[in-house]
Every structure is written in structure tokens, then in C-alpha cells.
Design a protein that fits this description.
single chain, alpha/beta, seven-stranded mixed beta sheet, six-stranded antiparallel beta sheet, 8 helices, 26% helix, 27% strand
């Protein structure tokens, strides 16, 4: 089958590789190169890098609705467009291929429509999630469903770890989806008509920890923000990132945010609105992340103070 692959992030790379092995990828559409990092070096998207390595033509339009880009896509005469972690497509684009345009999404639709479905599933403490392939339509993540697959979320699994697992799982689901569309055995069905939780993009301020929340809620937030945009607490010397935690008690006798325990072997324990949380991986301002026990051994952390006073 002749396929145009559209994507940006490394989440789509296993699917891209799998499709390239079994089908003809006639072009990869991704974002233009951009300056990144402190040195502002110009970087290509992971999808572009993978396409160039395979000798697949790459298209990097500034505007997807540009008539010249649309005509260029049309000239490829693709059977199917396959989208993973890309931009919102205009109708002039997603209606081009004869078999339609398919999207691989990191949730069990209709739940978690939006840019950050994996993060929000972890933040909300879900125990199950999955992947869905569906035909793109005019609205965000609302098209008819083709296939889905479920997977459990570990109690301490981070969004980054789940992201990696779902990325690999997506390759098989995508291959089965394309095969079913190609031989006509797969019929799309409308999404269930029920209220679903949104999954808007997360930004750095969203990572601020509210220590008056219960310990499990904070633990889930830390997991869901790991690795980006990152959970943090504002301290006297700046933002301290909290990368990993453990829920160790159901009740707490201290005020929220109070350092209830300091151990050179186990790290820092903090009282929450309900319960107690142990910080096991931390990142002080301007430094690399480290296990919290090492942080305690290298810094003087006072018992009984508010963590924001460190």
C-alpha cells in the first residue's frame, strides 16, 4: 500500500519503521527544522531523521493548508495517510487519500481527547489505558474507531515509561489497522456517545505541587509529569523538581509541606493534606537529578521545616 506518514515525535517511530517494512512510504510529512536547546542548534524532528535514513522523501510545510503543499500531496497518489503525534489536519488534506486518513492515539477513545492523553491517564491515577486507531474528521480525536488495544498502568509507572511502552505497542496495532483497511475486513464504528475526560497540553506551571492534596494524588501527579513538563515545589533557592516519590502512609500528623523525615538512606519524607510522601528522586535548582538519599547526604535538610524553606 502507498502511504504518506505524518508525525513529529519519537512516539511514532516504531509505527513508522513497521509500516516502512511492509508498505511503501512515499513521503514523510513533519515539522520544519527548529533551533533547540541552550545552543539553539537547528534540529530535525525524529520522524525526519528516520525518513532521511531510509531515503524516504520528507515534506516540512509551514502551513498544512497551503495550496501548493496540498497539490504536492495529491500528486503522490497515496492510498492512505497515517498520522502519529502530529498537527491538526485541514479537510483539504485528510480527504485526499482514497482510503482515508488514520490517526494512532495514546488513549482508549473517546477518553482523553487532546495533546497529552498519556500524562493525564497517569495524573488521574488510572489503572488501565491503551491505544486507538481511528479515521480523522473535522474535530479533534472524534473520528470513527478502527481498532484499540488495552494495557495496565503500573502503580509507580511514570508517563515517560508508559509513553515508551505504548509507542512500541502502536506498531502492531498500526500494522493490523492498515491490513484490515487494505483487505476490507475492518469496519470503522462511531465513538461511544458518552462524556470523556479531556487531555489538554501540559505546561511547566501545571507541575507545581500542592502539598495540601493527599499523598496519592501528589504521587500520581509526579508520575504523570515525569519526565516533562516535570513536577516541582518552589523553595527558597528556586524550583526543586520532584521526579519520583513513594506513598508510605495513609495518615499524617504534620502540616502539609512539612518535612516529616530525613534519612541518608531513604531520602526526604513530606507530610501532605492526607498521608505522607517520600521523595526518592530530586533535582535541586541548576543541578542534575539525583536520588534523594544522595541529596540528603550532601545537604543539610532540617526536620520539621516546610519543604519550601529548603
Amino acid at each position: 500500500m502507498r502511504i504518506v506518514f505524518m508525525g513529529t515525535a519519537d512516539f511514532g517511530l516504531p509505527t513508522f519503521s513497521a509500516l516502512a517494512e511492509e508498505h511503501e512510504i512515499v513521503a514523510a510529512v513533519t515539522v520544519p527544522d527548529k533551533p533547540k536547546g541552550r545552543g539553539r542548534s537547528v534540529m530535525s524532528s525524529p520522524v525526519k531523521v528516520a525518513a532521511v535514513e531510509r531515503g524516504i522523501p520528507v515534506m516540512t510545510p509551514e502551513k498544512l493548508s497551503n495550496p501548493a503543499f496540498v497539490e504536492e500531496l495529491k500528486a503522490l497518489d497515496a492510498d492512505l495517510f497515517f498520522v502519529v503525534a502530529f498537527r491538526i489536519l485541514p479537510r483539504s488534506v485528510f480527504e485526499l487519500p482514497r482510503l482515508g486518513t488514520v490517526n494512532l492515539h495514546g488513549s482508549l477513545l473517546p477518553d482523553y481527547r487532546g495533546a497529552a492523553p498519556i500524562n493525564w491517564a497517569v495524573i488521574n491515577g488510572d489503572t488501565m489505558t491503551g491505544l486507538t486507531t481511528f479515521f480523522i474528521d473535522d474535530k479533534i480525536d472524534t473520528g470513527d474507531i478502527l481498532l484499540s488495544v488495552e494495557t495496565a498502568i503500573g502503580a509507580d509507572e511514570t508517563a515517560g515509561e508508559l509513553y515508551d511502552r505504548l509507542s512500541v505497542m502502536g506498531a502492531d496495532l498500526s500494522l493490523r489497522t492498515v491490513a484490515g483497511i487494505g483487505d476490507g475486513s475492518l469496519k470503522a464504528v462511531p465513538q461511544p456517545d458518552r462524556e470523556a475526560r479531556p487531555a489538554p497540553k501540559l505546561f511547566k506551571p501545571d507541575g507545581l505541587i500542592d502539598w495540601s492534596s493527599d499523598s496519592l494524588t501528589i504521587h500520581n501527579k509526579v508520575r504523570g509529569m515525569n519526565p516533562v513538563p516535570g513536577a516541582f515545589t518552589e523553595c527558597s533557592k528556586g524550583a526543586v523538581k520532584v521526579h519520583r516519590t513513594e506513598v508510605i502512609e495513609n495518615e499524617s500528623s504534620g502540616t502539609p509541606g512539612m518535612i516529616a523525615g530525613v534519612s541518608p538512606k531513604e531520602g526526604i519524607t513530606v507530610s501532605c493534606g492526607k498521608g505522607t510522601l517520600r521523595i526518592t528522586e530530586i533535582q535541586p535548582p541548576g543541578k542534575k537529578k539525583m536520588d534523594c538519599a544522595s541529596f540528603v547526604r550532601g545537604c543539610q535538610v532540617e526536620l520539621g521545616i516546610n519543604i519550601c524553606s529548603m
